[in-house]
Amino acid sequence: MDGQPVEHFLDIVPLKATDAKTIYSALVEFMKDKNIQISKLVGMGFDGAAIFSGKHNGVQSLLKKISPHALFVHCHCHLLQLACVQAANATSGIKHVYITLTTLWKFFHYSPKRAESLKAVQQVLDLPELKVVKPSDTRWLSHERCVKAVKASYSAIVTALNNIYEQTHAPEALGISKALCRPSTLVAIYLLDYVLPQVAKLSRALQTERIDLTAITPLVDATLNTLDDAMLPAANWVLELMDAKNEIEEVTDITLTTESIATFQGQVAEPFIRMLKANISSRFISQDIVSSFGIFDPKKVPAADSSDFHTYGEDLIDVLLAHYGAELPAKTAGGDEYTKEALISRETREEWKTFRSYLSKKPKGNLHLQLKELTTSDMLSEIFPNISTLANICLSIPVSTASVERSFSKMKLIKTRIRNRIGQSQLSYLMKIAMETPETLSSTQLNDIITVWNKKPRRIAV
User: Fold this and answer.
1) What are the Cα distances from residue 83, in Å, to 109, 208, 268?
2) Helix (H, G, I), strand (E, B) or coil at 9
3) Which residues contact 296 (CB under 8 A, 6 or more apart)?
4) Measured between alpha carbons, how far is 39 from 68 in angstroms, rounded to an integer?
5) Tell me: the pLDDT tens digits for 419-458?
6) SS3 (DSSP) at 74
7) Using an 8 Å Cβ cutoff, are 146 and 123 in contact?
8) Is 88 exposed, middle or buried (0-12, 13-18, 19+ CB in 10 A)?
9) How is residue 266 annotated by DSSP?
């Protein structure tokens, strides 16, 4: 719509089983009912579960048999979360801190009385009244929020734990307090409070609706460069820790020295950051087809008088042609074999040479605006039909499944433990209202709603 990809919540599809073939069959049947042509599928996004992403028998491989030109994109937010979790689990000093944070969350979450004790200490110490956030390996950004809250109320948490132990002699309170009073735990909290926000910025960028696939690699590279700063002897998190040293030592009896911090950097911080960078780099390997769409970025086009201009982009056009310009074997939803026609023609090479000159003479805008122009301008679509088709494909390929995750969150708000008997159709209607209703309604829309409501006899008239 107006050069912008649009996402819609369509329905909740009941499943008789959760294997790949059942899910695939349910998707095919649903799309038939909605008159959606699966053969026009150009991109699909799933998480990393083998049932979806399997190369041979996963849902994506089955869908590719119907639409062989479609690209499967592993949700980049899931990839980032997996990279962080794997790096933490591979570094014992960080893994133990994550275990402590989980135990701390359970200790206060499941006892309102203990939570009130923490709140009272925060008020006395004039600290923000923050709750300990649940750290989860599967929930995006949860570790960042948890670490931030614990760091901001570190003194209050330790004091509250000690008070609870003195009053109740609860062994859990003593154990968590001792774990938090270890110098290595405190230093790790400050390290994570620097590292995780850098990763969280990347995750939030990947969740935005208007991000395009070609922007991922530069964003990842920028994040990796920022993580290098955390390994410096005078990194920002180290300086911040030294500034707070005296205040923390008064409350927690933790003794911090320059030598102990340096030892932690060498034995824990550097291995953790190297592992994190390696995991991110290995999971975010650029696909040739996806990265080839970067040729449409006006900022990358060389000057018309440069030696590189006359060959710029031709190798990448060949990559796109090899995939989208090829006739590929396919199957119908019924299983009949046929040859899927190419999405672009061989004339794409000649179109690109002309379009390249057009790009060089334009003001240097960004890639998204250029793709939008290609999809909305009738003139450009007529002159460059194949290039316009590629622009539409690029805008249609998903980057993440963030919108799907948001729909699950909406579902949990609608179908709670108290309202767990909501039927399938009613739940679907409520989900559509929650997901598709605009933030503001015009007077005409409101009047239409009232008219529909009043068509049936009701006890309450509007």
Assistant:
1) 27, 20, 17
2) coil
3) 359, 367, 370, 371, 374, 387, 390, 391, 394
4) 8
5) 888 888 899 889 988 888 877 878 888 888 888 878 877 6
6) strand
7) no
8) buried
9) I
Rg (alpha carbons) of the chain, rounded to whole number: 27
What does the alpha-carbon distance between residue 176 and residue 174 come to, in Å, rounded to a whole number? 6
- 416 burial level (CB within 10 Å; 0-12, 13-18, 19+): exposed
Query: pLDDT of 265-291, one tens digit each?
Result: 999 999 999 999 999 988 876 667 888
408 exposed, middle or buried (CB, 10 Å; 0-12, 13-18, 19+)? exposed
Q: How many residues does the chain have?
A: 462
Q: Strands 337-340 and 328-331: what pairing? A: antiparallel
Give CA angle at 90 (87, 93), nearest 5°. 95
pLDDT of 367-407, one tens digit each? 777 888 888 888 989 999 999 999 888 888 887 888 888 88
* Rounded (10°) angle between helices 92-109 and 183-207: 80
Instruction: Cite the DSSP H helix spans in 91-141.
Output: 92-109, 112-124
For the stretch 144-179, pLDDT in tens is: 999 999 999 998 999 999 999 999 999 999 999 999
Look at residue 286 in the predicted model and tell me its pLDDT: 63
Q: What beta strand segments (E) does 292-406 contain?
A: 328-331, 337-340
Number of helices (H) and strands (E) in the chain: give both, helices first.
24, 4
Q: Is the pTM of this model over 0.85?
A: no
Q: Residue 351: what pLDDT? A: 92
Q: Give the SS3 label for residue 113.
A: helix
